[in-house]
Automatic annotation (TrEMBL):
Presence of keyword Transcription: yes
Keyword match Kinase: no
InterPro entries, sorted: LysR_HTH_N (IPR000847), LysR_subst-bd (IPR005119), WH-like_DNA-bd_sf (IPR036388), WH_DNA-bd_sf (IPR036390)
Gene Ontology terms, MF aspect: DNA binding; DNA-binding transcription factor activity
PANTHER family from the UniProt entry: HTH-TYPE TRANSCRIPTIONAL REGULATOR CYNR, TRANSCRIPTIONAL DUAL REGULATOR HCAR-RELATED
GO CC entries: protein-DNA complex
Keywords: DNA-binding, Transcription, Transcription regulation
Signal peptide (UniProt feature, chain positions): none
Gene3D superfamilies assigned: Periplasmic binding protein-like II, Winged helix-like DNA-binding domain superfamily/Winged helix DNA-binding domain
Protein name as it appears in the record: LysR-family transcriptional regulator
Pfam families reported in the protein's UniProt record: HTH_1, LysR_substrate
Family the UniProt entry places it in: Belongs to the LysR transcriptional regulatory family.
Domain spans labelled HTH lysR-type: 1-58
Annotated source species: Proteus mirabilis (strain HI4320)
Length: 295
């Protein structure tokens, strides 16, 4: 039996009017009349009483209405299940990212979506330490964060990050290429990111200061890099930030000077928990590391 005829029967029974039912079905009124007559002929039953006030179900029509609704519902389920057998289901992955991956994360995901549209990737901004915690707990499938990581986490490098000295442009005295910006630590206090907000960055900055025998005057600890940069822009001190901070700083008022030597560079990569099996995640990693250039 043609389910279109059953659908016409159900819609007409619901509206009680050929004109309204034909609008809902996006067909002409004569076409609807023909469908109802065809169904009545196949069933050898009169389903509606026609009159000036519309169409009213007969006793037989009322009896068959519920069964017609059941058949339509089961038909829709059958169609959906059939599509699922031949069409891949859209899968969602959950990824963490931070400031260091901000420059490439959106374009990378857009390119991935073009290659694999049936896998969607939901992203959330958080610290590298928090990403690792969530990966270990299975709350994230992948993360874009600093390397190296400890097992069972694994990672593949995608790009490199660099430590920079953020200073108010008004405080810069010399800009020669060979000038050593460490001089500013002698005269300007340091605005530091709170360790709980960036544990690994805090540890790296501490190692950098020790390596270069620097003991700057600590002015305050901020809760995020944006606040650090705002305080620097106001001329209240200097800060050590990743190069990617240039994406969010006021370039007219803040200058980022590159630092060299140990503890000034680190790799940013895609990270996952190798103890958790996930074929869609593995496909995502394979595509972004082998088929997509993030530069």
């Amino acid at each position: 039996m043609d389910t279109r005829l059953l659908n016409a029967f159900v819609v007409l029974a619901d509206t009680g009017h050929f004109g309204e039912a034909s609008k809902q079905l996006c067909i002409s009124q004569p076409a609807l009349t023909k469908q109802i007559k065809t169904l009545e002929s196949q069933l050898d039953i009169v389903l509606f009483e026609r009159g000036r006030h519309g169409a009213k179900l007969t006793q037989e029509g009322q009896y068959l209405l519920n069964q017609a609704q059941v058949v339509l519902r089961e038909s829709h389920i059958l169609e959906k299940q059939a599509r699922q057998l031949v069409e891949p289901q859209k899968v969602s992955l959950y990824a963490g990212f931070g400031l260091s991956s901000l420059s490439f994360i959106t374009s990378l995901l857009a390119k991935f979506n073009q290659i694999e549209p049936n896998i969607s990737v939901n992203i959330d901004d958080m610290s590298s330490h928090k990403m690792e915690e969530k990966l270990l707990m299975g709350e994230l499938d992948v993360a874009f964060s600093r390397l190296p990581v400890m097992p069972p986490l694994q990672g593949i490098a995608l790009t490199q990050e660099q430590l920079m000295l953020a200073i108010a442009t008004q405080h810069i005295t010399v800009l020669e290429a060979d000038y050593n910006p460490l001089h500013y630590f002698d005269s300007l206090g340091l605005i530091l990111l709170a360790p709980e907000k960036g544990k690994k960055l805090y540890q790296q900055i501490h190692a950098f200061l020790q390596q270069h025998k620097l003991a700057p005057r600590l002015l305050q600890q901020s809760q995020d890099i944006q606040t650090q940069l705002a305080l620097v822009a106001a001329g209240l001190g200097i800060a050590l930030v990743p190069k990617s901070a240039q994406l969010i700083c006021d370039k007219q008022r803040v200058t980022l000077l590159p630092l060299s030597g140990l503890y000034t560079q680190w790799k940013i990569g895609v990270i996952w928990n190798s103890n958790i099996k996930n074929k869609e995640r593995d496909l995502f990693i394979k595509i972004i590391t082998e088929k997509i250039d993030i530069k």
